[in-house]
Each structure stands twice: as structure tokens, then as C-alpha cells.
Specification:
This protein is of the alpha/beta class. Helix content is about 40%, strand content about 15%. The protein has a single domain (about 10-180, about 210-235), classed as Rossmann fold.
Length: about 250
């Protein structure tokens, strides 16, 4: 590893509900965080852009992003955390080609091409790639075909890359279920009974907290998790193990 300061963690989107917990957790643990985001934040945001646009390694915008990030990381990149996500909630027969392109671009292609761009820097620092996937990789609901497909592909990509890159770069994913982010809670605005019902359905009796996902991510990126490779960590409070029958 290049010994010239703190290790760098690169996040794709740090302004969301989980991202807002990831960044301070990593900073408190001594990491320097650089992020690509859709908006400026109080913390360091190197580039403000639509990450879904950076899916073609031959495209000028993609090359500009990679060059700027390479300069910012200064050879210290040790963790690439793919946190950006796009979700369309719509029945199958209402999905458009744009829905599919955007979902796959943000949730799958962008993480892959960024990983390829920084593979050698990560390898030099004995680093890793961590994707924030979802319980929808294997368990989903109506109206989420595009999202669930993209997350299943993302987790599958992580497992496949772990086999191919594992000697140099570890590759893992975290698969959260219902986490009490501002976006999730906004969907229950004015419906406290629905929130209570969702909480009761969880085997642990409550929703997850963004900070709990952040701690799982921090562990996955730590030296203590050196043998963790090709893993898709279930952070679901047990709901992924629950059988639901209509009676």
C-alpha cells in the first residue's frame, strides 16, 4: 500500500438516507471520503453529476470523471462503495425502455465500469469493492421488476467478480431490507398504522436504521473482514427468512 496518508473511500452518492450514515461512519473510523453525487453537500463532493451517465468507458464524460477521481484519490483508494440506486415502482406492462436503461445504468453498469477503472489502484492498496445491493436481489414485491432485476444482477456480478479478482481486490455486497430512511418514511406520510404494521412484520420488531447498514459496510471494508469475499450480507432483521402465508 502507498503510505502517504489516510485510506480513501469513494462513494457513488452519499446524500441519500443510507449514504448520510455511511459517510460519517467512515470518517469517524479514519477514512477520507470522496463522493460522486447529484448535489453538493457539506462534506467533500468531488463531482456533481448523474452517475447513470457514466456507463461507457469510451465516453468523454466517463473519462473526465475517472481522471478527476484518480487525481482526488491520490493513489490511496482502498474502498469503492457503490451506493447509488435508481428505483422505478411500476407494473411490468407500464415499464418503458427508459426505465430499464436508467435502472441498469445506475444500479449495475456504472459500478462495474468504475470498478474496472480503479481495479489497479484498489489492488495496489489491498482494497475492495462494496456494493449496496438490496433484499430485492432475491425477494421482491409487485411493481419492482426492473429494480429487483438490477439488484439480482448486481449481487451476481459481485459474486462473479470476487472469483475473478479476489486475489487482488475483494468484492462484497450488503443487502438491506426495510431501513427507516427519509425516503421510505415519506412514503408512509399520514399512515402511522401502516408503519406500525411493517414494523410488526419484522422478526426483530422494528425497521432497520441507516447507521446499522453503515456499521456493516464499515466492517466489510475493514482488515478484520479480510476473508470476506463474494459475500452478500443479509441486513434484513430476519425478514428474509420469514415465510408469509395469506392465512
Amino acid at each position: 500500500m502507498i503510505d502517504a496518508g489516510p485510506a480513501v473511500a469513494l462513494f457513488t452518492v452519499a446524500s441519500g438516507g443510507i449514504g448520510c450514515a455511511l459517510v460519517p461512519a467512515f470518517e469517524a473510523a479514519g477514512w477520507r471520503v470522496v463522493s460522486i453525487d447529484l448535489q453538493h453537500m457539506a462534506r467533500e463532493v468531488l463531482l456533481v453529476l448523474d452517475i447513470g451517465a457514466c456507463t461507457d468507458p469510451d465516453d468523454a464524460d466517463h473519462k473526465h470523471v475517472v481522471a478527476a477521481l484518480r487525481q482526488a484519490t491520490g493513489g490511496r483508494l482502498q474502498a469503492l462503495v457503490a451506493n447509488a440506486a435508481h428505483q422505478v415502482v411500476r407494473p411490468c406492462d407500464s415499464l418503458t425502455s427508459t426505465d430499464w436503461r436508467t435502472t441498469l445504468a445506475v444500479n449495475l453498469l456504472s459500478p462495474f465500469w468504475l470498478a474496472m477503472a480503479f481495479k489497479h489502484e484498489l489492488a495496489a492498496n489491498r482494497g475492495l469493492i462494496l456494493a449496496i445491493s438490496s433484499i430485492h436481489e432475491r425477494l421482491t414485491k409487485p411493481g419492482r421488476v426492473a429494480y429487483a432485476t438490477s439488484k439480482a444482477a448486481l449481487s451476481g456480478m459481485v459474486r462473479a467478480m470476487a472469483v475473478e479478482l479476489g486475489r487482488e481486490v475483494r468484492c462484497n455486497a450488503i443487502c438491506p431490507a426495510a431501513v427507516a430512511t427519509p425516503m421510505l418514511m415519506a412514503g408512509f406520510a399520514g399512515r402511522p398504522d401502516a408503519v406500525n404494521a411493517l414494523e410488526r412484520y419484522q422478526p426483530v420488531g422494528r425497521l432497520g436504521r441507516p447507521e446499522e447498514v453503515a456499521q456493516a459496510a464499515l466492517f466489510a471494508c475493514s482488515d478484520e473482514a479480510g476473508f470476506l469475499n463474494g459475500a452478500c450480507l443479509d441486513v434484513s432483521g430476519g425478514v428474509g427468512a420469514r415465510l408469509h402465508d395469506p392465512v
